[in-house]
Amino acid sequence: MENRFEGNGKSRRISTLTGSWLDNSVAVQQSRRMGTYKGDDDEEQDEVLTKRGSWTGRFDFLLSLLGYSVGLGNVWRFPYLCYNNGGGAFLIPFTIMLVIAGLPLMFMELSIAQYAGLGPAVLFRRFSPLFQGVGIGMVLIAGTVMLYYNVILAWTLFYAVASFEEPLPWKGCDHPWTSNNCYSYEEENACVSNNGTYYLRKCHANANLIANLTKVPKKPPAEDFFKNYLLRLSPGIETTGNISVTLALSLLGAWLIVFLCLCRGVKSSGKVVYFTALFPYVVLVMLFVRGITLPGSYNGIMYYLEPDWDKLKSAQIWGDAAVQIFFALSPAWGGLLTLASYNKFSNNCYRDAIIVAISNILTSFFAGFVIFSILGFLAHELDTEVESVIDQGAGLAFVVFPEMVTKLQMPMFWSVLFFFMLLTLGLDSQFTLMETVVTGILDTFPKLRQWKIRVVFGVAVAGYVGGLVFITNSGMYWFQLVDKYAANWSVLLIAIIECVLIAWIYGSERFIGNIEEMIGKRSLCFHYFWTIAWKFVTPITLLFILCFNWIQYKPVSYGKYVYPDWADIVGWIIGLLPMMVIVVTALYKIVADTSLQSTVQIIRKLLKPTAEWKPSRSPLYRFEYDDNGIEI
Q1: Carries keyword DNA-binding (predicted)?
Q2: Is the CA virtual torsion 558, 562, 567, 573 positive or negative?
């Protein structure tokens, strides 16, 4: 063992591990003999880390991360974007954006949270006190999204239960909730076979009576079922109406499932994800096998895959790819930080980030085959073009697929399977969103850990009450409003702030050194790649996404309904609230500093990590840095 001292006035390092890598126990023993090791004392004194818990199974974290990153958007948004942006050509910008934006942010957040063993609320308070509001803003975003995301699960739960009815309740137009424009191809065929003419839900024997009437839009029964029976949609957001009892019970069921799975924190959710993260892949394979055997599936897949290379020249395809990968992996929401904070210190988060990123893009691509084979069949059955039945989001899940499944053999089976798959896809994301909020509360107030079940129950009750606005007659309008604004510009700005704080202020080399303390020595290429990515490429890409979103901005709308001005103002307030918290917190930190330093000196001090910033466990290798963040 060699002790080296530098007498040039800089900080000094006692190099106890020079020339070789030692395991944790040897490093600790050497440090203790020299009297420099303080890890155990620090952990005992750190109330936040005490009894915090960790993942108990080998694959708990990886599957939770996979479930969080692979969600509903992979099934109901990516295929539509791929079709709309040049088919197979869309995979090129999507993969590039994954490498330069999605993966760097994911790896950065997983690494810093695993190193500190803290959720976002406390992590940034220690890492950069001036930007403590970043962590609070993340918890706010997760809490807001959590409210309306569980409403999707409530819809899905309702459809899964309703799928056990025979025939399926949304089949045909002979129901009190259908509109005059409801159009059933089965009823039309039956009418034509009797030499009649099908018009406005009725079969007319005398075609001459309706020959000169105006053509009307055709609505599938599944659309009327969703809007008129389930949502009972009011004319606009101004008309609140009543709370739907059916949806209130469905929402209660969704929250009950989430509470039961999270009541013991990551110990319970880590076991549930073995099913919820893997079951959707089983269903996707089953739907794919069934889909490609249906007539018209080939045409649907060709619509999906046929590349249009000219679209690579447009900014739209690159912007859509960047936005999709950013919101697919969900950095800056606090979820990645929360999940990684429960990792063992030596977990290889680099490997996990790469596995999940690749799984995300492969799942999205495969889901496109499934969806478009089914859309091709639906177009074949309706004797129309594929583009006329394409939809995305809720329209695909709750209108197009229910309409299609009525035309399959064993419709109950496929309907139950599909909606149960959607439920498990959404549950993983909801688990992480709620765990982010719960972790933020428990990290901030560690003494509440002894009442963790009560805290989880309180968050679930608050989430249920907060979600009631989304199940009123105007609930869908509120849903669209919050969905557009809640996790948009603030998330992008927070991600940019993270890059600046970690790569520039803290120092990318210093941060990579922290990573090496956890996963071992890395090559020079590793250092160069991630330094360039975190300092330059990723922040510039995020600025591009931000500018693209601003340029593409349009006030929120739902179908032909135009929202009033006050609704847009409410949306902007919801969207910018996390940034306002960041600014107000920073100003408070500066004003509350009682030292006699100048404002510039205070800001510099508040930008640096506090004395509490340290690894959550004894590192494999220790580095020391001077005041400028340069390794000594």
Answers
A1: no
A2: positive
Distance CA 228, CA 166 (A): 20
Within 8 A by CB and 6+ apart from 459, the residues are 434, 437, 438, 441
Q: Is 3 annotated for ligand binding?
A: no
Q: Determine the Cα angle at 578 with ends 573 and 582, to 5°.
A: 125
Domain boundaries, the chain: 61-183+218-607
The SS3 of residue 182 is strand
299 annotated to a ligand binding site: no
Residues present in the chain in total: 632
- Tokens matching residue 5: 């001292």
Asked whether 255 and 150 are in contact (CB, 8 A), the reply is yes
Q: Check whether 425 is labelled as a binding-site residue.
A: yes
Known binding residue 67? Answer is: yes
CATH superfamily for domain 61-183+218-607? Amino acid/polyamine transporter I (1.20.1740.10)
Model confidence over 16-26: pLDDT tens digits? 333 334 444 44
Residue 271 class from Cβ within 10 Å (0-12 exposed, 13-18 middle, 19+ buried)? middle
- Is 11 known to sit in a ligand binding site? no
Distance CA 266, CA 64 (A): 9
Give residue 273's identity as a one-letter amino acid code. Answer: V
Calpha distance 373→444 (Å, rounded): 49
pLDDT in tens, 174-220: 888 988 888 877 777 777 777 777 777 677 776 555 555 566 667 78
Look up the pTM and report it: 0.87
Residues of the chain under the 70 pLDDT cut = 1-47, 49-51, 201, 206-217, 618-632
User: Tokens representing 500?
Assistant: 């600046």
- Rounded to whole angstroms, how far apart are CA atoms 534 and 528? 10
**Residue 74 labeled ligand binder:** yes
β-strands 202-204, 557-558 pairing: unpaired
- Closest alpha carbon to 120 in 332, 425, 349, 408: 332
> Using an 8 Å Cβ cutoff, are 69 and 423 in contact?
no
- What pLDDT does residue 32 have? 43
